[in-house]
Write a structure and sequence with these properties.
By secondary structure, the chain is α/β, with parallel strands linked by helices. It has three domains: 247 residues, P-loop containing nucleotide triphosphate hydrolases (Rossmann fold, 3-Layer(aba) Sandwich), CATH 3.40.50.300; 42 residues, no CATH class; 210 residues, Nucleotidyltransferase, domain 5 (2-Layer Sandwich), CATH 3.30.420.240. It is 40% helix and 17% strand. Strands 5-6-7-4-8-9-3-10 form an eight-stranded mixed β-sheet, with helices on both faces. Strands 12, 13, 14, 15, 16, 17 and 18 form a seven-stranded mixed β-sheet that branches. A three-stranded antiparallel β-sheet has the order 11-19-20. A hairpin with a 7-residue loop joins strand 12 and strand 13. Helix 3 packs across helix 4. It is elongated and about 85 Å long. The N and C termini lie far apart (58 Å). The relative contact order is 0.09.
C-alpha cells in the first residue's frame, strides 16, 4: 500500500477504501469538517424537542455519511464519491439531514450556478424536504439574508452565485431532461420508479464533482426499482460483488424478520434511537405491533426495522375471528340501529350481504348472507377450489337456479331484511350494481356508493382489526365468513394505509368486503361525520 498519512489511515474502513488509497485517494478532514460546521453554525432544527437548537450532526450522520462523503478526495482534489445510498428507518432524522445537505450544496459547495434538486416519487413527497428547507432558512438570519424563498414553485434561490434548489418529481412540469444538477437528493428511493430514476441518472454529467444522495426506508414492493437497487447495495456490502468505488452505501436494518422482537436489533436498525426517536415511543410502537395483525407487524418491520416486506400480507389470524362468534336471535337485535353493505362480485360466483348492528354495549354485531349460482360448485370443483356444496346444504349459502346468480333473489332478501329490521344506510360496490340499487331505492331504501379505494377502506379495515382483537365485534358464526377471513390478504401502501386485496387473496373475500362497507357506515353513523373519499385509485 502507498504511503498513507495518519488522518487518511483513520478513515480506512473497508476493502473499497484500501483500493481507493492505492489509486491515490486521501481523506481531507478540513473539507469534511467544513460541512459539520455549516450545520452547527447556520442551521437550526424546526420541530419536536430539537426545535430551535443548532443542528449538531449525530454520530452516525457524521461518521458514516457526511465525513466520508465530503472528506474522501480523488488525486485531482474532487470528491471521491459521486453517489450515496443510505437505507435508514423512519424517525431517524432523514428529512432534516437531507434538508441540511440541500442547503450546503446550494450555498457552500463551491459551485457557481449550482442546481440542487430534491427528487421524489411525487410532488407531495418532494414537499417534505422542501418544507424543512424553508423552515431552516427562515430560522437562520445568515441564510435568510442571502436566500430567496419562492414557495409557490417550491424553489430557493441564491442570487449571489446564480444558484437554486427546487423539487423534481415525475409529476412536475420540469423533468430531468436538460437539467445540470450539481447535487441531487432523492427522498424515499423505494417508491421512485425506474422512469424517473433513468431521467435523473445522467443529469449530473456536466459537473466537475456531481453528487447524488438517496436516503430511503425499506419498501414493500419487491418488484420495484427501489428493491432492485437495495439488493445491489446489499450484495456489495456482503462482498458478493465488487464494490463500486464512487458509491457510498449505508444500510441500517435488523438481521431478519425472525428477530424483530429483539431490542438489540432495534438498536442495530435505528442509529438515532434515543435521539430523534425515544426508546419509550419505540417500545410503544412495538407493543402495538406485537398485539396487532400480520399487516401491523409488517409495517413495524418495514418502517421501524428497515426490512423489506411484501406489500400483501395475511390480515388477521382466523382464531381471532372465531373468538368473536356469538350468535344472537332476531329478538335480541330488534330495534337496534343497523347499517349494511353488499358486494355483488360476479354472477358466476359468491355474492355477500352484511348487516352491522350497534349494540347497547357499544359493540358491533355482524350478520351475513351469501348467494351463488347452482353451477358455481361444479366450476370450483373443476378448478380444484374449496367446495361450496356443504354450505349450500347447511343453508349458509343460498344457491339460485342456473349458472349465474339471480340478483332478483338478493334484492328480495335485502328488501325483506330491511322490512323486518330497518337498515339506516346500505353501502354498495358500484360494479354490477346499477339495477339492484335502482330497484331498492324505488322501494325506499337509502343506499350510498362505496368506491373500492384504499382511502375508503383504510379506516374501517383498521377499526375492524382493533375491534376484533379487542373483542369489540360479535358475529353470527357463519362458516362461509370464517373461510373468507382466512383467505383475505391486506395490501398496504407506503403511508401505512390498508385495504383487502381481492386479486392476491387466496380465494373469495366478498363477505369481508361487505363487512368493511357496513362497518364504514356504522362508524359514520356513530360520529355523524364522513371519513371517506371516493376519489382514489381503484382496487386491484
Amino acid at each position: 500500500m502507498a504511503r498513507i498519512d495518519q488522518v487518511t489511515r483513520k478513515w480506512i474502513r473497508s476493502k473499497a477504501d484500501e483500493v481507493a488509497v492505492e489509486s491515490g485517494c486521501r481523506f481531507d478532514l478540513p473539507a469534511a469538517d467544513r460541512v459539520r460546521k455549516f450545520f452547527a453554525n447556520l442551521l437550526r432544527h424546526s420541530k419536536g424537542d430539537f426545535a430551535g437548537k443548532p443542528f449538531e450532526l449525530l454520530d452516525w450522520q457524521w461518521q458514516d455519511l457526511v465525513a466520508p462523503l465530503f472528506g474522501w478526495k480523488r488525486p485531482d482534489g474532487t470528491r471521491r464519491y459521486r453517489q450515496a445510498d443510505a437505507w435508514v428507518p423512519k424517525k431517524n432524522g432523514k428529512s432534516t439531514l437531507c434538508a441540511g445537505l440541500v442547503l450546503y450544496g446550494l450555498c457552500c459547495d463551491g459551485e457557481q450556478g449550482a442546481e440542487v434538486y430534491g427528487a421524489a416519487a411525487d410532488r407531495t413527497q418532494g414537499q417534505i424536504i422542501y418544507r424543512e428547507v424553508e423552515r431552516m432558512v427562515s430560522q437562520s438570519p445568515a441564510l435568510s439574508a442571502h436566500l430567496t424563498l419562492v414557495s409557490s414553485r417550491s424553489r430557493v434561490v441564491y442570487p449571489r452565485t446564480g444558484s437554486y434548489y427546487e423539487v423534481l418529481s415525475k409529476d412536475s412540469k420540469k423533468t430531468g431532461h436538460g437539467i445540470n444538477a450539481s447535487l441531487l437528493v432523492v427522498d424515499e428511493l423505494h417508491v421512485v420508479d425506474r422512469v424517473l430514476w433513468n431521467t435523473i441518472a445522467y443529469a449530473k454529467a456536466a459537473r466537475k464533482q456531481p453528487l447524488s444522495i438517496a436516503i430511503s426506508t425499506a419498501g414493500n414492493d419487491v418488484t420495484s426499482f427501489g428493491y432492485e437497487r437495495y439488493r445491489e447495495d446489499k450484495r456489495i456490502l456482503d462482498g458478493e460483488v465488487e464494490p463500486i468505488p464512487h458509491r457510498l452505501i449505508l444500510l441500517y436494518q435488523a438481521d431478519s424478520n425472525d428477530v424483530w422482537e429483539d431490542p438489540a436489533q432495534w438498536e442495530k436498525a435505528n442509529p438515532s434511537l434515543g435521539e430523534t426517536i425515544t426508546r419509550e415511543s419505540f417500545e410503544e410502537d412495538f407493543d402495538e405491533a406485537k398485539k396487532g395483525s400480520a399487516g401491523v407487524q409488517a409495517n413495524f418491520k418495514q418502517l421501524r426495522l428497515n426490512l423489506w416486506q411484501d406489500s400483501v400480507n395475511a390480515w388477521l389470524p382466523v382464531e381471532e375471528w372465531d373468538a368473536c362468534a356469538n350468535p344472537r336471535t332476531d329478538e335480541e337485535l330488534d330495534g337496534l340501529p343497523c347499517t349494511g353493505g353488499f358486494d355483488l362480485a360476479s354472477k358466476l360466483d359468491l355474492c355477500a350481504w352484511c348487516r352491522a348492528y350497534r349494540l347497547e354495549s357499544g359493540k358491533i354485531y355482524l350478520r351475513f348472507r351469501f348467494w351463488c349460482p347452482e353451477e358455481a360448485d361444479n366450476r370450483r370443483q373443476r378448478a380444484n377450489k374449496a367446495l361450496l356444496k356443504p354450505w349450500i346444504i347447511s343453508g349458509h349459502i343460498t344457491a339460485t337456479p342456473g349458472n349465474v346468480t339471480d340478483y332478483d333473489a338478493i334484492e328480495q332478501a335485502i328488501k325483506a331484511d330491511h322490512e323486518a329490521a330497518p337498515v339506516e344506510v346500505i353501502a354498495f360496490d358500484p360494479w354490477n350494481a346499477t339495477q339492484i340499487v335502482g330497484h331498492l331505492q324505488e322501494e325506499g331504501l337509502y343506499l350510498e356508493e362505496f368506491a373500492q379505494t384504499i382511502k375508503n377502506f383504510n379506516e374501517p379495515m383498521k377499526e375492524a382489526e382493533r375491534l376484533i382483537l379487542a373483542r369489540g365485534i360479535e358475529h353470527d358464526g357463519n362458516p362461509v365468513m370464517r373461510w373468507q377471513m382466512g383467505n383475505v390478504m391486506a395490501r398496504t401502501d407506503t403511508n401505512g394505509n390498508s385495504r383487502p386485496d381481492k386479486a392476491k387473496s387466496q380465494d373469495k373475500i366478498d363477505g369481508v368486503v361487505s363487512m368493511l362497507m357496513a362497518l364504514a357506515k356504522a362508524l359514520q353513523a356513530g360520529d355523524g361525520s364522513s371519513h371517506y373519499d371516493d376519489n382514489d385509485v381503484e382496487m386491484g
